[in-house]
Amino acid sequence: MLEREMEIYWLGQACFRIRGRDATVLTDPCPPSTGYKIGRVSADIVTISRNHPESSYREAMTGSPKFISGPGEYEIAGVLITGLDTDRKDRDDGYGRNVAYVMEIDDMRVCHLGEIAQVPSGDEVEELSAVDILLVPVGGGRTLDAEKAAELVSLLEPKLVIPMLYKTEASRDDLQPVERFLKEMGSEAKAPEQRLSITRSGLPQDTTIVLLNYRG
After folding, report:
1. What is the domain partition of the chain in residue ranges?
2. H or E segment at 208?
3. pLDDT tens-digit series, residues 62-82
4. 216 pLDDT tier (thresholds 50, 70, 90)
5. What is the helix (H) or strand (E) element at residue 42, kind and residue range?
6. Residue 197 in contact with residue 20, Cβ under 8 Å?
7. Helix (H), strand (E) at residue 6
8. Is the pTM for the entire model greater than 0.90?
9. Which of 104, 133, 137, 185 is the most buried (most CB within 10 A)?
């Protein structure tokens, strides 16, 4: 049976559109106030890592997607999703804790870490293990900075790493550029791609960083 490629587009901030064989997932829709104009987007499933205005812009959605905004196990449209609480305590900003999501799509495990702010403990790392594709914040601010992001990547050992939540020409938050993360990882800067198209058999053996252009 011919493998179908899963496609991942970065729309800015922590917002990705992940299109699989059976369903499309959108993560953390962001409003225009972030500097990213994602427009109107369709998806079958929408995951929200925190109830922060910059990652829960439901007005961007068209149709009637299923929203997931908390820890637990979900199966929607053939996609198995596990939400994991990554914060040890409530944050001071009043927007609740962060939830990371592990999604099983097209025989691959994709982990979207949301606005994770600290390197997980040993038990949490075990729950996030065996991830094929890791979507990780690297720009600091209210999330992981480059150094902590690199530490987490070394713990999880994913096949592919896609950085998010870093400084771009569009972003308005005070964030570090992605080059700082690349330096921590010992990786050279490379030209961003419009999208990632990948199959299970096409995953690399060693951890590889992929940069995406926002709004792919």
Report:
1. 6-209
2. strand 208-209
3. 999 999 999 999 999 999 999
4. very low
5. strand 41-42
6. no
7. strand 6-12
8. yes
9. 137
Tokens of 11: 């729309």
Structure tokens at 5: 């490629």
Q: Is residue 17 a contact partner of residue 204, using CB atoms and an 8 Å limit?
A: no
Closest CA to 67 of 49, 48, 85, 52: 48
What homologous superfamily is domain 6-209 in, according to CATH?
Ribonuclease Z/Hydroxyacylglutathione hydrolase-like (3.60.15.10)
CB 13 within 8 A of CB 29: no
Q: Tell me how far apart the alpha carbons of residues 209 and 191 are, in angstroms, rounded to a whole number.
A: 11
User: What does the angle CA 157 – CA 87 – CA 141 come to, to the nearest 5 degrees?
Assistant: 80
The conformation of residue 170, written as its DSSP 8-state character, comes to: S
Chain centre distance of CA 195: 14
